[in-house]
């Protein structure tokens, strides 16, 4: 059962797409899922037509009830009759690398100097939602991130678009090819369910989501991590759930630089993740510029990539396979430290760890030393937030230790978020050995989560009033006319993070719909 | 000389040195042999020095050691190693006319003091052991190559046996006979070179160097690579920069090597942090200052502690001190914020201040010590300077 999400930024009025009035439904697809979830908006009269031919689409379509979505290509005739933008919404997860990626051997294709290995986190706690729409009426590609329009001409977005279109073009001629006109411009809106200021804002989730949505839009299937990689290296790892490896690859064209799942999230049920969100500081060096600087100036980085990482990867894969937390934890900490070491060996040096990060590191070591084994393992990315791995039975006690070491500044703000944490009494002996001088307010809050799948929210998640019964009638029980309900849905859609459009284009996107089109 | 009328007493002073190519990690912990060579600048004793008096007498019943007025354990292995080595060398010289008649079986009393506060974190085992060895050697009439002996006390002490710019050769021999210090250039070689030590507010004690470097050797893959593949090439480059008085090259390489040393500390497990947020702020300040001027005008280096050692040429000192003062305003006016060599008051152009000075952090820098390269150990001939009295016990300073 999901717990309350962190403060959402859903309810922000979004720019409304310019589209033809009265435009109806555009093309959309259903079918087997790749990577993160696809949700499809559909309502109105055509919804009934959508009842056929779904390729295993799950029942929880936007049209509500048992209606199934329209299979891709099954109504080609109907699809050619575009009555508005084709719209797809996907969600995608964040991932945390335990063997770090830092440095490219090709900045165009985004090919790394070393392989990396990550844990995909659960979308109940952290996810990006992206809606992508294409229409002949759109005059240019546009992009909104968390409600703010940003430059859609930026190379990485364009690279992803080009790649998806290229793959779509390849499929032309297949029955399954998307009839969506590849020359149409796209509008993309993306939102995170976690605050950007937390420093968890993840280009990985963002690009994985974007690529998934675009791929759905254009009817592209198959290996997509390569496409996501073109947006942001680590995004390729967010295309899969559980434990994921991004292979460095050898080919100059990058065709073999792809992500592969090592084990599903169900492989290690006791594994938990605590994200200690540290009080914000002024922005450090961005990852792209930072890693380039490291490649250019750090002798140690080269050695790390060539001589250290390959061996660590096999060890890490083995620790995960064997569910060996001692090995997993120790290697995770070492690799985090080595990544930051190469940042320090860069010129000018890059510091992502601050005094609070260091205090957390020291705390983790004291805690482990006290217990005589590795019970918690820290890892830090390009920022001060700590990601702590622990097994389920350690969480309560360690959270108590963190609370004692970094007392919340005020009681109001929810200090503990995400999965529930039990209140553990802290034995004074432990506290005396482990808790140093408390630093109030240093940790803003703790987010408790766990490894997660590529799919998004669970079936049980209630929709936000966007249900429509079969036959296009108003949402069950609300007694409104379709028109009124439609306007509500438009507003709902507009306020809920999927950009909306005026009247008629009744395509409430169903966020995070759980599709079981194909067994995971 | 055979007529002993009380303890034989010798007093020496010895300098602190700052490595610009760092030593971190031993290949032999007994003989104190390093995994890589290192290169340092010896600082001037007017600002920083250890003074050591060594006395030997038939009346002393045991070896005793006082540091900054406090008696400490004289049985500790490194002190004994130095003693043994000096006596061994003295024994070798027996038979020469110049040999010391001092009975090698006599116990010694040693008192040592720094002219800088221990709490500053500048307390340097290098200066201490260099001084001890210099004094003992004088006492026993031992001359010649002594850096090897100082090395037995503390690795970096061997570099404090010489003035100016000094290299400590790693050596290849297992017995360490070739692991010695050599002067690359005297302190007079680069008259414009200055050193500003930013003494940072004290924190709780970090990991000591000896334990720290052992942990690094044991656990850091990057350290091994540094020692084998990176340092040798950096040493030749650094020697050339010094020879050519090339501050741009000298400064940049100094900063890079400091950072790489700290990187290997971070790559240690558990990780070792000697830099804190103030150190980071100083580093960032140096980079902004250099960027503003479009060239390397200041170069930082940090040892196993948060104090920053800044190299600069004479004509940069006044302005950079003003920048530091603006960035890290002294907590109170009472304490002398500027010490050592004089610094002129420079007006800070507002344009510079705007570009370079970040959010000021009051009190983060306790004081600045202005110094420069200096000579090696000195013998003090004035008997009033002895730290031990005729009774062989520490003199109460007036």
TrEMBL record, chain A:
Extract the ranges annotated as region (Disordered).
448-483
GO CC annotations on file? cytosol
Q: In which pathway does it act?
A: Steroid biosynthesis; cholesterol biosynthesis
Per the UniProt entry, the Enzyme Commission number(s) are 4.1.1.33
According to the lineage, what is the superkingdom? Eukaryota
Please state every residue range assigned to the domain named Mvd1 C-terminal.
Answer: 273-452
Q: Which residue ranges does UniProt annotate as crossing the membrane? A: none
One GO term under biological process is: sterol biosynthetic process
Q: Which Pfam families match?
A: MDD_C, MVD-like_N
Q: Which transformation does this protein catalyse, written as a reaction? A: (R)-5-diphosphomevalonate + ATP = isopentenyl diphosphate + ADP + phosphate + CO2
Q: Which residues form the Diphosphomevalonate decarboxylase-like N-terminal domain?
A: 92-259
* SUPFAM superfamilies, alphabetized: GHMP Kinase, C-terminal domain (SSF55060), Ribosomal protein S5 domain 2-like (SSF54211)
GO molecular function list = ATP binding; diphosphomevalonate decarboxylase activity
Q: Could you tell me the keywords of this UniProt record?
A: ATP-binding, Lipid biosynthesis, Lipid metabolism, Lyase, Nucleotide-binding, Steroid biosynthesis, Steroid metabolism, Sterol biosynthesis, Sterol metabolism
Which family is annotated? Belongs to the diphosphomevalonate decarboxylase family.
Q: Does the keyword DNA damage apply?
A: no
Top-level EC class as recorded in UniProt: lyase
> What does this gene product do?
Catalyzes the ATP dependent decarboxylation of (R)-5-diphosphomevalonate to form isopentenyl diphosphate (IPP). Functions in the mevalonate (MVA) pathway leading to isopentenyl diphosphate (IPP), a key precursor for the biosynthesis of isoprenoids and sterol synthesis.
Identify this protein by name: Diphosphomevalonate decarboxylase
**Residue ranges with Low complexity bias:** 469-479
Organism expressing this protein natively: Anser cygnoides (Swan goose)
């Amino acid at each position: 059962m999901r717990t309350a999400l962190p403060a959402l930024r859903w309810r922000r009025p979004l720019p409304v797409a310019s589209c033809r009035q009265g435009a109806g439904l555009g093309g959309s697809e259903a079918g087997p899922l790749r990577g993160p979830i696809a949700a499809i908006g559909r309502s109105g009269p055509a919804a009934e037509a959508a009842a056929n031919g779904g390729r295993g689409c799950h029942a929880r379509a936007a049209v509500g009830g048992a209606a199934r979505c329209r299979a891709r290509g099954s109504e080609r005739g109907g699809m050619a009759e575009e009555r508005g933008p084709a719209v797809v919404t996907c969600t995608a997860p964040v991932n945390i690398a335990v063997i770090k990626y830092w440095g490219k051997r090709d900045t165009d294709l985004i090919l790394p100097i070393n392989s990396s290995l990550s844990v995909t986190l659960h979308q109940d706690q952290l996810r990006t939602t992206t809606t992508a729409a294409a229409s002949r009426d759109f005059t240019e590609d546009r992009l909104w991130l968390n409600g703010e329009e940003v430059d859609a001409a930026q190379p990485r977005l364009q690279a992803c678009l080009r790649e998806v279109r290229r793959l779509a073009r390849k499929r032309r001629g297949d029955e399954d090819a998307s009839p969506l006109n590849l020359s149409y411009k796209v509008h993309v809106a993306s939102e995170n369910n976690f605050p950007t200021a937390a420093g968890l804002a993840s280009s990985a989730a963002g690009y994985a989501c974007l690529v998934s949505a675009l791929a759905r839009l254009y009817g592209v299937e198959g290996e997509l991590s390569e496409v996501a990689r073109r947006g942001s290296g680590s995004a390729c790892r967010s295309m899969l759930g559980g434990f994921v490896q991004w292979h460095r690859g050898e080919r100059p064209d990058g065709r073999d630089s792809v992500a592969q799942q090592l084990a599903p999230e169900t492989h290690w049920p006791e594994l938990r993740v605590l994200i200690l969100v540290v009080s914000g500081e002024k922005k450090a060096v961005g990852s792209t510029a930072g890693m380039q600087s490291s490649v250019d100036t750090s002798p140690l980085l080269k050695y790390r990539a060539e001589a250290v990482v390959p061996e660590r990867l096999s060890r890490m894969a083995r620790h995960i396979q064997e569910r060996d937390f001692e090995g997993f934890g120790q290697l995770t900490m070492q690799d985090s430290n080595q990544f930051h070491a190469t940042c320090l060996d860069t010129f000018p040096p890059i510091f992502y760890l601050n005094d609070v990060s260091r205090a957390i590191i020291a705390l983790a070591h004291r805690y482990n030393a006290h217990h005589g084994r590795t019970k918690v393992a820290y890892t830090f990315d390009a920022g001060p937030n700590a990601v702590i791995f622990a097994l389920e039975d350690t969480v309560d006690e360690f959270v108590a230790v963190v609370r004692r070491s970094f007392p919340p500044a005020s009681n109001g703000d929810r200090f503990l978020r995400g999965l529930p944490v039990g209140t553990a009494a802290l034995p004074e002996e432990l506290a005396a050995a482990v808790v140093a001088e408390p630093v109030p307010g240093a940790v803003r809050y703790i987010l408790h989560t766990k490894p997660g799948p590529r799919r998004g929210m669970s079936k049980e998640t209630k929709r936000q009033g966007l249900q429509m019964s079969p036959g296009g009638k108003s949402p069950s029980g609300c007694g409104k006319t379709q028109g009124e309900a439609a306007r509500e849905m438009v507003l709902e859609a507009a306020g809920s993070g999927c950009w909306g459009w005026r009247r008629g284009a009744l395509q409430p996107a169903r966020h995070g719909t759980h599709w079981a089109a194909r067994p995971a | 000389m055979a007529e002993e009328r009380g303890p034989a007493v010798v007093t020496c002073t010895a300098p602190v040195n700052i490595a610009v190519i760092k030593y971190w990690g031993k290949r032999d912990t007994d003989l104190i042999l390093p995994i890589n060579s290192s290169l340092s600048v010896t600082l001037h004793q007017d600002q920083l020095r250890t003074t050591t008096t060594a006395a030997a007498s038939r009346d002393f019943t045991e070896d005793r050691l006082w540091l900054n007025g406090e008696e400490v354990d004289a049985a500790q292995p490194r002190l004994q190693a130095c003693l043994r080595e000096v006596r061994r060398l003295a024994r070798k010289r027996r038979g020469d006319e110049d040999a010391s008649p001092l009975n090698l079986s006599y116990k010694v009393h040693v008192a040592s003091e720094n002219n800088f506060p221990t709490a500053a974190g500048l307390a340097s085992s290098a200066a201490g052991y260099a001084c001890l060895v210099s004094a003992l050697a004088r006492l026993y009439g031992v001359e010649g190559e002594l850096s090897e002996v100082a090395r037995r006390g503390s690795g970096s002490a061997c570099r404090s046996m010489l003035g100016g710019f000094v290299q400590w050769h790693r050596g290849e021999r297992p017995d360490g006979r070739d692991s010695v210090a050599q002067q690359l250039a005297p302190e007079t070689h680069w008259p414009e070179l200055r050193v500003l030590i930013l003494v940072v507010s004290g924190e709780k004690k970090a990991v000591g160097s000896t334990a720290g470097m052992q942990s690094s050797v044991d656990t850091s893959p990057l350290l091994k690579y540094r020692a084998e593949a990176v340092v040798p090439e950096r040493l030749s480059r650094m020697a050339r920069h010094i020879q050519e008085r090339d501050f741009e090259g000298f400064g940049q390489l100094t900063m890079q090597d400091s950072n790489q040393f700290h990187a290997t500390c971070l790559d240690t497990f558990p990780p070792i942090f000697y830099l804190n947020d103030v150190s980071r702020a100083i580093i960032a300040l140096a980079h902004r200052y250099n960027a503003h001027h479009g060239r390397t005008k200041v170069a930082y280096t940090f040892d196993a502690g948060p104090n920053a050692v800044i190299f600069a040429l004479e004509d940069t000192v006044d302005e950079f001190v003003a920048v530091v003062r603006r960035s890290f305003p002294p907590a109170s006016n009472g304490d002398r914020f500027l010490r050592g060599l004089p610094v002129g008051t420079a007006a800070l152009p507002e344009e510079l201040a705007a570009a370079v000075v970040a959010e000021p952090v009051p009190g983060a820098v306790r004081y600045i010590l202005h110094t420069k390269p200096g000579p090696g150990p000195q013998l003090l001939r004035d008997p009033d300077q002895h730290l031990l009295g005729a009774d062989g016990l520490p003199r109460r300073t007036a």
